[in-house]
């Protein structure tokens, strides 16, 4: 073995800027298992590095050949004359583990593994990945992959990848850093981006995330001045804590983040034991996570590519004083039909296109722009004149009724790109954010918009998608301290649940616990009452005959207790009913569900939903990462459509929605408990009393880890 080698321990594993240097900016790389057969995937990295003009040192490692693709090859990493910073391991899965161990012994800090056959490959693969993690931890090697197709840093011409798309020369360099679970997706984004002048600073395929995750890789680049924004292609929400930490850092540096996540269906939704489990399905949890982290989540591939310019010009929204305020867009167009398509796409995503006010129309007229009142500003053919479009944009960008302005350009964009888009380009730095939907296929016009940094869209779907995603972001906040992952779980009975919730500030209806065989005592509250079976293994009491409502006196109470014992023990053979909970009947003017869930990936969430038996059908709910303050809880109240009926709608009595917000905030503090790890909890229903009288829980469920 030649050279000066230093072994690393697990405590010396790279993080931060040191990780970024070795992973993305190495001066020396080793290609372990590089092939001489140009038809093989394992031959590509050397070809790509040479074709790109990488100026660092490349060491080829192949134990069976002295020359690979006409260049010197070494039999092992140990035979190299010096220690590289990054090893790209192109061998099979078992040999890859041995190569990582050799990296560790030699002090090579980063290894990227191309091979699959790990946790996705059944029991043997799971064991193989366990060994990989163990070896990497033991020696302090940071591992990218397995199943990583590599890393690319275009400015430094580091094309350390096996993705065939990177055979293309002279790829455009830009400020976007893209991290993806899918390696093949990187090539698709680069090729599509090239066609419209979108350049990248770097691209990373994280593969199976056995060690390095998307969040940690992106976090390592935050202070790189060449990186101006991030694109994340996600297949799962694993390592969400690191992703959230990165998102906070990106927000602090005003670097926008857009995500495209697969799996919008709720096929993996976990029913658990509560309505909250059914309502907080996999995709709705991801949606909440992205919004609360300030990440724009898009649903179209076109929107994914086109989002960052608009996100960079639109600040992440903060809470609005006007509850229920929808984002507003003003549309100015030279083509009514094209604008209508964009308006439709915005409308179905909850973004309001609003007409200019009378004052705005008057200001336009003073500038020589005379348009008819209506939902959009239709300039017709007059809008193809520079001075007309420019004047309209200037007035609209300073109008208070619009949060942003969308210019829709028709056929002139294709045939007269100079005239059509120049006023938009010249208005890009106005008071309000400005974007452009180009209706015809007009590559030259779009290229000019892109080069000028003007957000622009080729389809109405992408236009609506990106604008809605931009408005949906919320200012990220520091996450609550996370509890250790619990093992096993146990339910609390209803009385124990109330005792846990009480110190948090959650109000419940008064109750007493009675033993089945004891005489009925005088109650500390008036009849009528509700009687419920009290048993930690029975979450849904009504399903087993464990609830009797409207009990009017002591005699009826005794009969209700006996009836509950009989029906529950019949419905659940082997169950012994020993206690009941007797609670004062509480009647409100409405009811809601407040839920809490500790998601295994993203952590604690709080949810507010319309109450009642149709809760799961209507799916009318608001959700946030927990805990939340009262101000955020008030915003959640404004988002639940059913609660508008409790705000004095059409002369109906007003409910105490402020008390609901207070209850949601208090309930969300379950995320912060130190002595208990709450996996799932629910108040269903929380009775909403008349305004000024509060909100009271009349049933509660808690599952602890």
Overview of the structural elements:
The protein is of the alpha/beta class. It folds into 4 domains: 256 residues, NAD(P)-binding Rossmann-like Domain (Rossmann fold, 3-Layer(aba) Sandwich), CATH 3.40.50.720; 154 residues, Rossmann fold (3-Layer(aba) Sandwich); 75 residues, Dna Ligase, domain 1 (2-Layer Sandwich); 115 residues, D-amino Acid Aminotransferase, Chain A, domain 1 (2-Layer Sandwich). The chain contains 23 helices and 31 strands. Helix 5 links the parallel strand 10 and strand 11. The chain is flat and about 95 Å long. The two termini are 52 Å apart.
Please give the order of strands in the largest beta sheet.
3-4-2-1-5-6-7
The CATH homologous superfamily name of the largest domain equals NAD(P)-binding Rossmann-like Domain
User: In terms of structural class, how would the helical and strand content be classed?
Assistant: alpha/beta
- Low-confidence stretches at least 5 residues in length (pLDDT < 50)? 1-11, 266-280
Radius of gyration: 30 Å
Question: What is the molecular shape?
Answer: flat
Instruction: Please report the number of helical segments.
Output: 23
Query: What is the end-to-end distance?
Result: 52 Å
CATH topology-level fold name of the largest domain: Rossmann fold
Give the overall average pLDDT. 90
What's the total count of β strands? 31
Roughly what percent helix?
25-40%
Major sheet description: 7 strands, mixed
Provide the number of structural domains. 4
What CATH first level of the largest domain would be assigned? Alpha Beta
CATH arch. level architecture of the largest domain: 3-Layer(aba) Sandwich
Strand fraction band? 15-25%
